Amino acid sequence: MKRFALLLGTFGLVLGAFAAGRSSAIADEGVTLIIHHKVASFDKWKPGFDGHEASRRKFGWTNHTVLTSVADPNDVFIVGKVKSAAAAKEFGAQPELKEVMKKAGVVGAPDISLLKVAEQKTY
Q: Are the C-beta atoms of 15 and 34 separated by less than 8 Å?
């Protein structure tokens, strides 16, 4: 339950960072991609992630935030803004992506969510 509450809190903070100052989402602002990985070592994983930036740009990523669990730095969340759902799906379908993840030390299959902002308010 603590992990779920942490995820919800983190999710809210990150979405706020993407749309700060806006009272509502605009339909053509793209989609938010949240990827949750367990990695063997964050310090080994991060250079592999950084080395894959050109591919993210190619598939329409416009920004990202990397988060780690307070309780476990090897529990990694990537929140990315992507130009379209189709581009996000094409990114995930790249044959070389699995190899990049394996070399970086990703343990197991990632949890992936593709989301569209329904509303965002800043208080």
A: no
Question: How is residue 23 written in tokens?
Answer: 């009272």
The H-assigned helical ranges of 1-123 are: 2-18, 42-50, 53-58, 85-92, 97-104
Cβ-contact 82, 88 below 8 angstroms: yes
What pTM value is reported for the model? Answer: 0.74
Task: Report the chain's mean pLDDT, rounded to a whole number.
Answer: 84
Closest CA to 62 of 89, 95, 29, 40: 29
Sign of CA dihedral 86, 87, 88, 92: positive
* Ramachandran assignment for 60, one of left (phi > 0), alpha (psi -120 to 50 degrees), beta (any other): left
Tokens 């992506």 correspond to what residue?
97
Q: CA 85, CA 101: separation in Å to the nearest integer?
A: 21
Task: Specify the DSSP class assigned to residue 75.
Answer: E
The size of the chain, in residues, is 123
Name the fold adopted by 2-19+27-115: Alpha-Beta Plaits (3.30.70)
pLDDT digits (tens, 9 = 90+) for 42-57: 999 999 999 999 999 9
